[in-house]
Amino acid sequence: MHNKGYLYILLATFFFSSMEIALKLVVNQFNPIQINFIRFVIGSMVLWPMALRSLKAANLKLHYFHLPFFAITGFLCVIVSMTFFQLAIVYAQASLVAILFSCNAVFVIPLAHLFLKEKMTLISVSSLFLSLIGMYFIVNPEHIPNVLGVCFSLLAAITFALYGILGQIGRRRYGFNGLVLTFFSFVVGCVEMFMLMLLSHVPAIADAITQMGLTDFANIPFVKGVTWNSIPSLIYLGVFVTGLGYSLYFIAMDETSASTASITFFIKPALAPIMAAFILGDALHENTVVGITFIVIGSCLTFIVPGFQQYHQHHTHSHQYQ
């Protein structure tokens, strides 16, 4: 049973690690907001049957009072965080975006303390500190490769971490699992984005946005660039990265555990830059390798140490009865 779970983790890790690379390959073919919308619509379709089955299995029903919650999570994830993420892809190397966005788990620590009243332990603070050192090496403030790209990557990571915190609040309040929360957040977020894309075609709004220099947000196309040549890329981004990536992650969680499945996001900051170097030719500098090492160690602290402590407690407890 666990072997199957580890296979799902491996596949989810590959799909998530290839996300920035796949987006970078089509960055010049689509409007950044448009590609964001397309991949989440396709991804939602893939998640649909599994989410409804999960909802039925848990004997839970959706009510109208759930809508404001999903409106907030959908807006924060699909529109805010993923728009920052998409803009980061435009302005920075795929490897840099992958590493910095992977640090969203680090930002969860102070946000969980602030909103969920979770204690900041020595392990969590150490993890945060090591990851921040890693980011310092990668960003290299004395020679920032692209200020806009770095800023958009960090804003995407912070807002995605906040989305994760809101998801935790929703799970506690309504009893929805991660798959159901993700699916309905995606769906409502796509509806909200569709409405905003329609508004961007209103002449007065489009002119005002253009005058502000934000041309990517004016007259956002819906199907422009969708050709026979671009369909394979869209299928990979929508079906495999967004849809199957999240599906496999949640199945892996059921097959193993939440903490075991989360190793996906600890491997990504190391794997994604290597993949970007081979596929896109992104340079892998020494400071980047040092930074990745700090981030991986910092992330693993939150995964390995609690697991070791639980094992030690169980081992000690069992010895007492021998």
From TrEMBL:
It is a multi-pass membrane protein. GO terms for cellular component: plasma membrane. The keyword Transcription does not apply. Keywords: Cell membrane, Membrane, Transmembrane, Transmembrane helix. Pfam families: EamA. The chain crosses the membrane at residues 7-27, 33-52, 64-85, 91-115, 122-139, 145-166, 178-199, 234-253, 265-284, 290-308. It comes from the Bacteria. InterPro entries: Diverse_Substrate_Transporter (IPR051258), EamA_dom (IPR000620), EmrE-like (IPR037185). Residues 4-139, 148-303 form the EamA domain. It is found in: Cell membrane. This is Putative membrane protein. It comes from Celerinatantimonas diazotrophica. The lineage of its organism: Bacteria, Pseudomonadati, Pseudomonadota, Gammaproteobacteria, Celerinatantimonadaceae.
